[in-house]
């Protein structure tokens, strides 16, 4: 055959999910025949045995590959010349192999020569334009985009159309391959200049295709207009407000708007209602997490400097009237504690939170927290750790001696104008003054954790916030426990949900309330 024979064609890759129910020669041959019946002009087949089985059943060109997982090389596709030989002996017309620039057992040159020696064609599976250049210089007949997105980093979702177009400027013999999942993408690959287009998973990996549809249907059912499971979750903080549509721990949609401090709660709520107007009807409940504390549905500030709330603002009543559905409200750190317990660090360490006691501590501009006891979150004042005045804190609230605000003030007192983030950078660069500030803050936070351990015996203390999660802070806290008996040593873990912990937590509480009531 000639490279021209594949011009303007669809090639179907028949590679079942390994060890899945269709990973048998019968299925591979069936997929191959069905593809040809429907117009495919060539096939891509993996393994010597399947190439032989398909060769016996069809006459069209076969691109053969062997996949191996090697201990000493990341190259998987046809790594050895012996593999190429075996594929040709089994009936492959084209041998494809990994042509990336990585340590490998057989060189691209050796593979090309071995295949050419038998009068067959070669396809270089590339990850980049540089790979394609080298492969063409080595004499490869086709270059493919097969490995783009598979040599490190997160796997992309879309096909690499840019690479197809770039390769086309090097050679007409470009085969588009990889993540072509829709007819539109296949057409776009052809238009981008591909000589032929390979489609695999979307046609022959039925488990993958089924999972794509399953995910689409499930997520549509979960957030469909009647929204029976969906919660509009709102997290009103001192500088910004996040609103999210949350379904069973998943944030389906979210927006963040600034909290205009001077406006007050009526205006904030009206602004959120306006910003989320297009979600109306898609949720059955509202959950609101706020800085400050909630009592009998009323919201009050504990620290007016963070957000000045009129004393006992009737949050539940106003929000219920505005959104037209039942509302639950809780302090933001308590909501985040619950979010981390159910879906974050607690869920990631089930053995540790097994007895249902977890404390969440957020160390940022101030210090906040939340407590989960026997698998239930505590409300009201519980967890306002920043405001306690333990022996370690003397007469000032602990947050005034530990938080990011304190760190910046302490730096200024020592003659350094620096934000908390800059103090961490300076500490990382070895500045003794910055190191000392971070060390003091971490020591006080660690002392707090030791006290918490003795009071509540949580399975985990989850540390969040910009300071708590800054480089090395948790490690410094842990160092303060050196030499302590393991039984009484607090078990610190980093928070996992970031800024979404509050909306995820309050949404779950609101949804659970509805379940208890129905
Ligand atoms: C990266 C890698 O190992 N690709 C393999 C190469 O043969 C196969 O697993 C792919 O299924 C094939 O490239 C077709 O791509 P898609 O299934 O996305 O249409």
TrEMBL record:
* Pathway involvement of the protein, from the record: Amino-sugar metabolism; N-acetylneuraminate degradation; D-fructose 6-phosphate from N-acetylneuraminate: step 2/5; Amino-sugar metabolism; N-acetylneuraminate degradation; D-fructose 6-phosphate from N-acetylneuraminate: step 3/5
User: What is the protein's name according to its record?
Assistant: Putative N-acetylmannosamine-6-phosphate 2-epimerase
**Gene name in the database record:** nanE
Q: Which HAMAP family match?
A: ManNAc6P_epimer (MF_01235)
Q: Does the keyword Thylakoid apply?
A: no
Q: Which SUPFAM superfamilies match?
A: Actin-like ATPase domain (SSF53067), Ribulose-phoshate binding barrel (SSF51366)
Give the transmembrane ranges: 454-474
First-level EC class: isomerase
Q: Catalytic activity annotated for this protein?
A: an N-acyl-D-glucosamine 6-phosphate = an N-acyl-D-mannosamine 6-phosphate; an N-acyl-D-mannosamine + ATP = an N-acyl-D-mannosamine 6-phosphate + ADP + H(+)
Keyword Transmembrane attached? yes
């Amino acid at each position: 055959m000639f490279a021209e024979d594949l011009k303007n064609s669809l090639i179907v890759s028949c590679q079942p999910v390994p060890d899945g129910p269709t990973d048998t020669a019968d299925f591979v041959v069936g997929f191959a025949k069905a593809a040809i019946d429907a117009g495919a002009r060539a096939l891509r087949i993996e393994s010597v045995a399947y190439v032989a089985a398909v060769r016996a059943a069809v006459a069209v060109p076969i691109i053969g590959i062997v996949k191996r997982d090697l201990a000493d090389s990341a190259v998987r596709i046809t790594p050895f010349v012996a593999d190429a030989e075996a594929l040709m002996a089994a009936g492959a017309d084209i041998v494809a192999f990994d042509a990336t620039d990585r340590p490998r057992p057989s060189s691209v040159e050796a593979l090309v020569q071995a295949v050419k020696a038998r009068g067959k064609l070669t396809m270089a599976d590339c990850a980049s334009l540089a790979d394609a250049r080298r492969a063409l210089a080595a004499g490869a007949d086709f270059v493919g985009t097969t490995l783009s997105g598979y040599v490190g980093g997160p796997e992309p979702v879309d096909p690499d159309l840019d690479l197809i177009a770039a390769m086309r400027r090097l050679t007409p013999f470009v085969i588009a391959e990889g993540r072509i999942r829709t007819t539109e993408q296949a057409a776009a690959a052809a238009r981008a200049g591909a000589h032929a287009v390979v489609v695999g998973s979307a046609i022959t990996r039925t488990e993958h295709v089924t999972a794509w549809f399953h995910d689409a249907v499930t997520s549509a059912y979960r957030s469909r207009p009647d929204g029976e499971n969906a919660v509009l979750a709102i997290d009103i903080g001192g500088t910004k407000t996040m609103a999210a549509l949350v379904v069973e721990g998943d944030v389906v949609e979210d927006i963040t708007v600034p909290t205009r401090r001077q406006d007050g709660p009526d205006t904030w709520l009206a602004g959120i209602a306006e910003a989320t107007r297009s979600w109306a009807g898609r949720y059955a409940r509202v959950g609101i997490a706020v800085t400050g504390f909630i009592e009998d549905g009323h919201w009050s500030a504990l620290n007016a400097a963070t957000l000045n709330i009129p004393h006992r603002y009737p949050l539940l009543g106003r929000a219920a009237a505005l959104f037209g559905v039942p509302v639950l409200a809780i302090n933001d750190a308590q909501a985040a504690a619950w979010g981390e317990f159910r879906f974050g660090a607690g869920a990631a360490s089930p053995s540790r939170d097994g007895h249902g006691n977890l404390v969440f501590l957020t160390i940022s501009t101030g210090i906040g927290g939340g407590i989960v006891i026997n698998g239930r979150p505590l409300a009201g004042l519980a967890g306002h750790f920043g405001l306690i005045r333990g022996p370690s804190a003397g007469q000032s609230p602990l947050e005034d001696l530990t938080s990011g605000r304190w760190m910046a003030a302490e730096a200024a007192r020592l003659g350094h104008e620096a934000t908390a983030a800059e103090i961490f950078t300076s500490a990382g660069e070895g500045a003794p003054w910055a190191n000392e500030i971070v060390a003091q803050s971490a020591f006080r936070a660690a002392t707090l954790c030791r006290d918490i351990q003795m009071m509540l015996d949580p399975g985990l203390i989850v540390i969040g916030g910009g300071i708590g999660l800054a480089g090395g802070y948790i490690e410094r806290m842990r160092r303060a426990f050196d030499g302590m008996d393991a039984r009484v040593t607090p078990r610190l873990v980093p928070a996992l949900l970031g800024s979404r912990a509050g909306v995820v937590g309050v949404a779950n509480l609101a949804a659970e309330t509805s379940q208890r009531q129905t």
